[in-house]
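re the bet — no i am not wrong, look at it urself. input seq straight from the record:
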Amino acid sequence: MNILFNGLSLGAIYALIALGYTMVYGIAKMLNFAHGDVIMVGAYALLVTLNLQGHIALGVVVSVVVCTVAGIVIEKLAYKPLRGASPLAVLITAIGVSYLLQSVSQLIFGAAPQPITIGNFGTVNLFGAEISTSTILTLVVGSVIMACLTVFIKKTRTGRAMVAVSEDRGAALLMGINVNRIIMITFAIGSALAACASVFYLMQIPSLEPTLGSMPGIKAFTAAVIGGIGSIPGAMLGGVLLGVIEKVCLSIPALSPYTTAVEFGLLIVILLVRPIGLLGKKRREKV
C-alpha cells in the first residue's frame, strides 16, 4: 500500500510536468524541451525565498509567479519569432534555452547541490500502512490542480479557445481568436504547473542543483508520449502510470538498478503497439 501511494504521488508530479509539455504541443505544435528546467527555476526561487526567512506559503507563491513570468518571457523572446520556422529550428532553440537556464543558474548559485527543507512532515496510518503526510499532500493537491485545469479547459472561454487553436489554428484566427495570446497563456499555465511540481518534488528529494529538472522533465515527457502527446487526460494517465511503475521497480531489488530502462522500455513498447499513445487521437491532415 505504501508503494502504491508513493507511486501515485510521484505520478502526480510527473503528470503536472507532462501537462506543460502536452498543452504546449497540442496548441503551439512544438516540443518545449526547456520545460524541465523551468522546474529548476521554481526550485531556486523557493530556496531564495526561504533563505530570506520567508514562509513556505510565500515561497510557493513566489515560485509560481517566477515560473509563470519565465515561461512568458521564454515564449516571447525565443519561440514567438520562430512561429513559422521549421520544427527542427524550434527544437534546437528549445535545447539552447534549456542549456542557457542551466548555465545561468550555475553562475548564480554554483554547481554544488544545495539542501532545502520544505517542512517537517510526519506519517499517518492509512489502511494499515504508514504513509508520509507529504505523499498524501502531493497526491491530493496534485489531483485538485489537474481537476481544476480540466474544468478550466472545458468550461471557460479561454479554455475553449485553447481547444479551438489546438484543433485548427487557421480557423481559430478566422473566428477572431488571438492565437498569440492563447499560446502565451498556455506557456504561463504550463510554467505555473512546473512550479507546483518543483515544490512537490523537493518534498521527496530535498536537494537542488542546476540540472534538477533534467531527468524529471525527460520522464514527464515520456509520460506525455505514453498517454498521447497533446492529450491532457493522456498526460495525467501517463504520469500516474510511470510513477507507479517507477516505485514498484525501485521496491524490487532485482529491478531497482534497471528502473529507468524499464520506464523507457515501456515507452518503446507502447509506441510500437500504439504510436499515438494510450489516449492519443489520430489527426487527419488536410491537403
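see?? Residues 72 and 185 are 8 Å apart (CA to CA). told u. also The radius of gyration is 19 Å. so pay up
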